[in-house]
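As a warm-up, study this chain.
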Amino acid sequence: MTLKFPLIIIVTFLSFAVTAQNKMKKVEELIETKDPGWPLVQDWIKTAKNKVEILPVDQVKAKDVLYKTQVTTRSSMGAVIFNTGGLLIDDGWIRILGSGNSKFTRTISDWNKGKSFNEFGEKPPFLLIADDAIGGFYILNGGGLGTDIGKVYYFSPDNLEYEPLDITYSEFLGFCFNNDLDKFYEGNRWNGWRTEVSKLKGDEVFNFYPFLWSVEGNDINKSTRKIIPIQEQYSLNLDLRKQLGFEK
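Now compare it with the structure written out below.
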């Protein structure tokens, strides 16, 4: 997929690097009261071209996730974690991870544990920050995907490649809020997708056969699809990369 969107100047407050496990900051140290990032994110949402649903937050849970993730609420990521259970974009087509909600139970911290790190407080080589209804994953690079640390990649289901988008987390929010998603996902939205996706849970995805990356799967309207847990799809994507020789 090719990323095309208008140039947006966005101030980035991202503080992605985390401390060593035995030096994790207390949650009180991560909550910024003088210059929080949430008002800025709210402004972006108010002017968004795409539909954005803010899922209600549980403050106790939000503090726990913020502590486990070790980002401050001055950053846009910390603002999303601390103030939302997650964000649903375009009727749930894209799901941005926050601190969890009954509609979208995964938290950014627990979803990444066992994937990008083993213990809370470790510096992860990447961080899964969002995903979409067709089994694509948005990943923040912590050094494991390339030298462009702090930039977002798209793990695309139509080629199983990690595609560099050359945008920061804050710019990724701008991409979700304002980009022409029909153009970005051209060929991967089927007739009537919006009705089906709007009923999809935030922890589920559509699985397609033939696979979207196969020659036989180039017409999504002719593919069969079923709903599966997102964990199953993520594991499948990684296994297929190995089977196809992408992982050495």
